[in-house]
Amino acid sequence: MLSVTEAAGARLAQMLKQQDVPEDTAVRFVCEGQGIALRQDSVRAGNTTFQHEDRTVWRRDAQVSELLAEDPLDPEGAKLTRQHPQEGE
Description:
Blueprint: E1 3-4, H1 6-18, E2 26-32, E3 35-41, E4 48-52, E5 55-60, H2 62-67, E6 72-76, E7 79-82
């Protein structure tokens, strides 16, 4: 299952704060075409969530969970990326 690093949680919290969205809104991975995109959304039944400083910043449903590997989500420059561990880690 994809995890979210503390740095990625902080980046998501910063994005939500800058966009001045309601407290019940977080970032969600959604299937879009052949890939996965980030969208703002509220809670749905069966979600897995990630908290950062007492705020839910990320939501994921079972459909997207199946598409993601066990790599952590981490900031890289201005974007969030999946960090693939090096062989042997």
